[in-house]
Amino acid sequence: MHSNHGDSDKFLVFFENMPYYKIDKLKEACRKRNVVFIGSSVTDATYFGFIGKEAVCSYLVSSMFKPTEFVNSKPWENNPDPDHEIIVDAYHFMVEGKTGYLAFFYNDRTQKWIIKSFHRELNTTDTYHPFRNLKILE
Q1: Residues 6 or more apart from 121 whose CB is under 8 A from it?
Q2: What is the torsional sign of CA 109, 62, 55, 124?
Q3: What span, in angstroms and rounded, lies between the C-alpha atoms of 64 and 97?
Q4: Residue 74: beta bridge partners?
Q5: Cβ partners under 8 Å of residue 106, min gap 6
Q6: Are strands 2-4 and 12-14 parallel, antiparallel or unpaired?
Q7: What angle do CA 123, 74, 29 make, to 5 degrees?
């Protein structure tokens, strides 16, 4: 568990192994077009056949988007304002057998949802193995 006393009237608590945000809030922001893409997230989405922000948002709100695994919640490492801690949630997802990585957060100062990363997961073989962590009983 982590906490931050950034402002005297705020106390930020989160658990790395549990989502900090409800992913449905991100989906709703996509429906309303209240999402900002940073870094190479839009360009990286072309790996999955999504061209532009509209295509990514359309995918995220569709029934085709189903996160396969919650990765973690952690403070934004490249936050330009370290006095205002922002937590980032990350998930794996699948698109036609390709494993992806989605990281996002909500900036309460701008009132915008930010998609930080939407790219190919580099630490996988692009095959979904739902039982990979199970051990064989002998």
Answers
A1: 92, 99, 100, 101
A2: positive
A3: 12
A4: 88
A5: 21, 25, 86, 112, 113, 114
A6: antiparallel
A7: 90
Structure-block tokens of residue 11: 């106390």
Encoding tokens for residue 115? Answer: 């998609």
Nearest to 103 by CA among 124, 81, 78, 130: 78
Edge to edge, the sheet with strand 67-75 lists 35-37, 112-120, 98-107, 87-95, 67-75
Query: CA gyration radius for the chain?
Result: 16
- With H, G, I as helix, E, B as strand and everything else as coil, classify residue 118: strand
Report which residue type is found at 24: D
Condensed to tens digits (0 to 9), the pLDDT of residues 38-83 reads 999 999 999 999 999 999 999 999 999 989 999 999 999 999 998 9
For the record, the structure tokens of 15 come out as 């658990």
In this predicted structure, the answer to whether residue 116 has a pLDDT above a threshold of 80 is yes
Q: Number of helices (H) and strands (E), helices first, in the chain?
A: 3, 7
Distance CA 70, CA 76 (A): 16
